Structure formats: structure tokens, C-alpha cells
Amino acid sequence: MKIFAFLLAFILILKLDLPIGVQSAHAHEMGTSALIVQETASGTGLFVFKRTVGADGKVPPIDFKFEPACELRNVNIEWEGDTEVIQRGNFFCSALLNAHHVAADGFTRLAPELIVLATPLNANRIHAVLTPNSGSISLNTEANNTPALQYLIVGIEHIVFGWDHVLFVTGLYLLWRKREQSVKQLLGQFTLFTVGHSLTLAMLVLGWIAVPTRAIEAWIALSVLWLAWELIRKETVPTSNWPHLLLIAAFGLLHGSGFALSMEERGFPDQALLSTLLLFNLGIELGQLWIVTLLASTFALLEKAHFPTFTRLAQNVLTLSIGGAALYWTIERIHSYV
After folding, report:
1. What are the chain's domains?
2. DSSP character at residue 234
3. Is the pTM of this model over 0.70?
């Protein structure tokens, strides 16, 4: 009966086209947009403009321009798979690149930012993130000062809009409820998960290790599927809690790899690597705390209102959603990997 319910949830998710990221191989709702500019001679150079298809299946309408205007020539458009459109070409400006700004518009909910990596001639690389509230950046390295605090917000976005990560955190919380464990045990499990993903995130960003992208994405999906299985199977009293804790730590390592891989396009500024890495990681923790707080508050309100039926229904719906999405991601990612 449980297996039937499990498969039913999976079918419903496909039929209803629920916005939980199943349209994306990486299960992230937002599309990534990036502009790479390199000046090779005075006022001229190369540009690459990348846009990733969002969860709505559309290419983000984000566009950019130089101010004062520069001429774009030899522009070629190509697709990488069916998920990313790339424009490559040359720019010709009437003055040095550092006398210009880059401005962007066309932001949407699913594409709320444009990553900019610019290298003016004989100058340090500029690293910036343009948003609806900050849609322009100076290409003068002395005038440009991108706030590192922006990476705190980016970290929150990565956990909150990364649906595979959201469902894993949700599953951990539901499993804690199912086993009627103490708050101390809940804190311990999330501490292990945090240590795990912080470790691999740092090592990947620093270039100490390398991991296969598709394999990691498949293993992340399997980690969510494991949680769903733990939630539906009949619980037995374990002889030791250590295997469960070690698995959580291992899954933390996997999810940290996922965070790092999703930041490949954006990168971290070399001149403030440690501070931005710490802020990004802090943003992930704040997002994770927000998810758990929302879950805990919801279940606390249901229990305080003495609605045991609704409490069970909420837990079952969440469990089936986790299982259905994880099953889809696992099949999809393993298929794309092999």
C-alpha cells in the first residue's frame, strides 16, 4: 500500500507539473545568467553571454548593454544541450573598457540576477552580481567595490530555491518527528549535515578536490530518496544511532558538492575569497534555519489547535512529495549520467 501511494505521488507530480524543480536536471528553480567580458586590446575584446533555462522552460529575458554604448560584432548563438543558450562575440568601444558601465534589465522571478566577470586591459578582474535593485556596475576596478555581503543573500537563495536541498532538510525534520527524538538530537543531526556540506564546499571552491557533476547530482537525488524510504518504512529500534549519523554527515558532503557546482559560473572573488565563502555558507545556514523554523511552526500550530488528522495529513503529503520528486530526480539523473 505504501509503495502504491509512493508511485501515485510520483505520477501526480508529473501530471500536475508542480513547480518543484522536476523540469530541471539540477532541480534548481532559477535560471543562471552570466556575462564574461575580456578586453584584449584598447577598447576591444571578447564577450560570452550565457543564460540557463529556468524551471518554466524558458530562456530568461535578461539582456545587457555597455554604457556608453559599444558595438557588438561577430555574434554567434549556440545551445549547450537544451538547457543553456550561449552568445559569443566581439565588442568595440570608443574608449578603454574601464571607462564604461555594464547595465542589465529583463530580470524575472526565475532569473533575478546577472553574474558579471569582466577583465579590463592591464587591470584586476571585476566580479559583480547585477540585480533589479542594482542593475549597473562600473568596469573601473578602482571605482568598483562589489559588497561581499551580497554572497549572504546568494547563499540563502541557493538553499531556498534548490528544491532537492529543501526536500532533504524537510525530510530530516520529518524523520526526527517520526522517531520522536529530542531537540538535542535534531541539532546534532543538522550540525553534522552543516559540517559535511561546509567542508566539501570549501575544498571545491579552493580547488583542493574535483568531483563529477552528473554523478554528484544523482547521488544527491538518492540521498533524498533514502530519506523518503526512511519516512515510509516501518520503524525498528536501532541498536546504534551511529550509522544514521554517519549517513547524514556523508550526505552533507554530497550536498556541499552540489552547492559548489552550482556556484561554478558565479565563482568567488579572489581578493575576498575567505569572507565571501563564509558569507555564502552562512546564507545557506540561515536558509536552512528558515526552512526548519517554518516546518516547526506549522506543526506546532496544528498540534496546538488539536488537529491530529491535519497533522498526519501534512506529514503524509510532505513525505509523498519528497518521495515522488526524489524518485523522478534519481531516474532522470542516473539516465543522463549513463
Report:
1. 2-27+162-337 (no CATH), 33-146 (2.60.40)
2. P
3. no
